[in-house]
Amino acid sequence: MLLENARLTDRVVEQEKVLRDLALAAEVQKRLLPRQGMETAVASLTGLNLPARSVGGDYYDFLELGAEQTGIALADVAGKGIPAALIMSVVQASLRVLSAEPDISLPSLAAKMNYFLYRSTGPNSYATFFYAQLDQRSRELRYVNAGHNAPYLLRAGGSEVEELNTGGTIIGMFPQTRYEEGSLALSTGDVLIVFSDGVPEALNPDEEEFGEDRLKDVLRAVRDLPIEGMAARVAEEMKNWIQDAAQYDDLTFLLLKVK
Asked: Distance (Å, rounded) from C-alpha 115 to C-alpha 175?
């Protein structure tokens, strides 16, 4: 009995240590994400990240790049938990370094991100990645989509949703890849939502997916709200859909609204 109690005590101590390590990892990961939204001369931005476990593999960011350029990014690392979180930190660090390079093109940035991730991770590790830069003077949005769910752009006064597909394949799987850049002009009232696949694939208690059409309908319904109100309503719609069902994937989205 004494030996068995000692073994149980050691097991409890080890479990407590694991829980403390997870809590610390979750706190570190929170610090890698924006603590609040961003206001620029021409746009309001905000985002939300809800990992399926204590830590996750989704990453979003807002970057002040100088020369009146603002960067926005969202990446979705394959997998969940600690392994995905470690790869997510590689994506975050790589993007922060590369985006600071003067005059780097978006296709070149995505290609370098791909190579860094390929060199830093195992053969089955990869991420989808969306990155865009908003020019505060011209209101031009340039972007590259590396295998990510196509973000939705809803124009002011319109009901049709544009999907931002231009780019290339996922990052981290292949050593050499090529990417293309897309661009579009934004106007006052335009709304952009970028999201991880955990959003449209979220299941309700009947195991039905939230779906892309429902997400587009929510975007149309909240378009006239202030940016934080939009984010709160999208999150509320997701919560009401999921209810008490299990969350199998990280849920992340970011919103941009043009002033």
From this structure: 6
The residues that bridge with 70 in the sheet, in sequence order, are 64, 134
- Tell me the DSSP string of 130-199: EEEEEETTT-EEEEEEESPPPPEEE-TT--PEEE---EES-BSSSS------EEEE--TT-EEEEE-TTT
Out of 6-10, 26-30, 73-77, pick the least confident. 26-30
Whether this prediction's pTM lies above 0.85 is answered by yes
DSSP letter (8 states) at residue 52: S
Superfamily the domain 37-258 falls into: PPM-type phosphatase domain (3.60.40.10)
- Find the distance separating the first CA and the last CA of the chain, reported in whole Å: 70
The Cα–Cα gap between 214 and 117 comes to 33
Distance CA 151, CA 139 (A): 18
* Residues present in the chain in total: 259
Q: Token match 């997916």: residue? A: 209
The pLDDT tens digits for 113-149 are: 999 999 988 778 899 999 999 999 999 999 999 999 9
Q: Where are the domains of the chain?
A: 37-258
Tokens of 30: 């929170």
Structural tokens at position 110: 């995505």
The CA-based dihedral angle spanning residues 11, 16, 22, 26, taken in that order and rounded to the nearest 10 degrees: 170
Sheet of strand 38-39: strand arrangement? 38-39, 43-50, 251-258, 191-195, 152-154, 161-163
**DSSP one-letter string for 209-229:** B--HHHHHHHHHHHTTS-HHH
